Amino acid sequence: MGDDECVIVVREFDPSKDLTSVEEVEKRCEVGPNGKLSLFTDLLGDPICRVRHSSAFLMLVAELSSTKEIVGMIRGCIKTVTCGKKISRNAKNNDPTKPLPVYTKLAYILGLRVSPSHRRMGIGLKLVLRMEDWFVQNGAEYSYLATENDNQASVNLFTDKCGYSKFRTPSILVNPVFAHRLPVSNRATLIKLSPSDAELLYRRRFSTTEFFPRDIDSVLNNSLNLGTFLAVPRGCCYTKESWLGSDKFLCDPPESWAVLSVWNCKDVFRLEVRGASRMKKTLAKTTRIVDKLLPFLRLPSIPEVFRPFGLHFLYGLGGEGPRAAKLVNALCAHAHNLAKEGGCSVVATEVANREPLKVGVPHWKRFSCDEDLWCIKRLGEDYSDGSVGDWTKSPPGLSIFVDPREV
Q1: Angle at alpha carbon of residue 349, lines to 253 and 50, rounded to 5°
Q2: Over residues 324-339, mean pLDDT
Q3: For the purposes of burial, counting CB atoms within 10 Å of the CB of 16, is it exposed (0-12), middle (13-18) or buried (19 or more)?
Q4: Residues 181 and 337: beta-carbon distance below 8 Å
Q5: Alpha helix positions (H), 163-262
Q6: If 172 and its partner were Cys, which of 109, 200, 232, 369 is the partner (CB 3.0–4.6 Å)?
Q7: pLDDT of residue 332
């Protein structure tokens, strides 16, 4: 390769002329480890599908100056989220001891790809630095990303070369969607909330949770949001018929309750498991056939994941009280049945490693990840609020709010 071909130009993605080239790079990068199962993503012809629902987003490509061949890409978006909390000193506040959220402008990096034939040339670093320039120009105070703990090349790039720190290690919990419906506990009453009721509940109870998006209303009113569901103990005063809104509920909540929302990733991207042996595929197919013919047995059938499949993502998971985890389990069963009706093969969520309600989320260990890795970097010298200081040095809390727009 001549020196002229080694000159890399980083520019903004142009959907009118770059679509085919970007898809080719994606395919070249989808090479899994030999003899192991690998997960591949089909973006359904929309390379920015995983960031386009954010209020500010950008996709960059890296191309050879001489041939105009695209050899790399990166996506990024910016949002305002909770990075900590403080006690109000405003005398007009009804409850001056109640903590208030401290917000910061946070950038997110995802979808970094470099063609296998052009790696170890500094292209990934160049793409990250250009994206960070855009973050800074748009006022972002921090930048973060999620990567696999065992993806050493990615971890080294961001921690050694780009100045990121290992920050949080949430758990990704994945459950298959069986051929049979799951029973929802008869000890729980489920109520579907309107977007406005859901917003009120989330802002009142979860706005101080780390990574909570200030524009939660945009998330809840998005067409990909399939609903927010509240679970309360059966027999308490709250039912579908007697529901008078989140305001009255929060004034007098039951001893235990739980909530979660469902996001439709199926219309954004599809996944596919590759590298499975013929024996594994046959076994999986057999479990589905038996489950479909004999649904009353409620066998844990393996869904069709060896072809492109869709998933629903559960977010905003939270609750209070001694029975909250069991109520979360009821909500997850309901979400499973929604996914089955929607033709999805998987239901997934991501929670803090120490999340107390984690025990209520059913999942298959083989499909899940005990410790995902989030890395963070401080972009500016100024902070949004002195009571938080440098967020990158803060200890993890019990919960995080995972934005479904970045799944």
Answers
A1: 120
A2: 98
A3: exposed
A4: yes
A5: 195-206, 216-220, 246-251
A6: 369
A7: 98
pTM over 0.85: yes
Neighbours of 342 (CB within 10 A): 16
Tokens of 342: 């929607």
Asked if residue 266 is part of any domain, the answer here is yes
In sequence order, which ranges of 166-269 are alpha helices (DSSP H)?
A: 195-206, 216-220, 246-251
What is the token pair recorded at 331? 């909500």
Q: How far apart are CA 327 and CA 352, in angstroms?
A: 18
Residue 200, SS3? Answer: helix
* 140 and 8 co-located in one domain: yes
Q: How many CA atoms lie within 13 A of 41 on its CB side?
A: 19
Burial of residue 217 (CB within 10 Å: 0-12, 13-18, 19+) is middle
> What pLDDT is attached to residue 295?
84
348 is a domain residue: yes
HSE value, Cβ hemisphere, 13 Å, CA-based, for 359:
7
Residue 152 lies in a domain: yes
Which CATH number is 236's domain given?
A: 3.40.630
Do 197 and 64 fall into the same domain? Answer: no
Length of the chain in terms of residues written:
407
Token output for 228: 């927010």
Q: What is the DSSP string of 353-387?
A: TT-GGGGGS---TTT-BS-EEEEEEE--S--S-TT
Residue 335 lies in a domain: yes
Amino acid at 390: D
Domain hosting residue 354, numbered range: 173-360
**CA 98 centroid distance within chain:** 29
- H/E stretch holding 130 reads helix 123-137
What does the pLDDT read at residue 41? Answer: 87
Instruction: Check whether residue 210 and residue 346 sit in a common domain.
Output: yes
* Beta strands 171-176 and 165-168, pairing class: unpaired
Predicted confidence at residue 151, as pLDDT, reads: 83
